[in-house]
Amino acid sequence: MKIYFDTGIIYPTFEKQVKNLPPPKVSKFLYNVKDRHEYFVSNLTKAEVFRKMHNDLGVDSEDCYTLWKSFRQSMNVVEIFIEEDEDKISFEDIAKMMSERPAPRGIIVNIIHLLAAKNHELTVLTSDEILKNRFKVYYTNIMTYDELRKIS
Fold first, then answer.
1. pLDDT digits 0-9 by tens, 79-122
2. Domain boundaries of the chain, sorted by first residue
3. Residue 23 predicted with pLDDT over 80
4. 115, 89 in Cβ contact below 8 A?
5. How far is Cα 92 from Cα 110, in angstroms, rounded to an integer?
6. Could you give the CA distance from residue 127 to residue 118 in angstroms, rounded to a whole number?
7. N or C: which end of the chain has fewer CB within 10 A?
8. Which CATH architecture has domain 2-151?
């Protein structure tokens, strides 16, 4: 399965590493099944992870890039670049989605993740239940960590 990681799935990995703590169970599981799946992130995911590492953990720019590179190499993660997509993300589509479903503040970034994954025919692995439950009507290949565990 081709799996797209949203920020909520992978950020705890960076947080634990910076704090010199054992990796979260999600990270351990994803590492153990990496030979059964193809993993993807976007440059949007990278920007969110860098923002959180810098703001919340005080990680400098150079270390952000070092940790990102290490994560991608250890998990065999492919980075996709949203602004270079042949199928550009339509903000008109996002506006339509927002007008059709109740949506909390902050959901638009997760909608962009959803559309990036859709453009590349990837399954979104998310910790965002609202994204999964309310917006699955727009793209059905969305799952949670618990659902992935059951099928892997």
1. 998 876 566 777 778 888 888 888 787 888 888 999 899 989 99
2. 2-151
3. yes
4. yes
5. 16
6. 17
7. C
8. 3-Layer(aba) Sandwich (3.40)
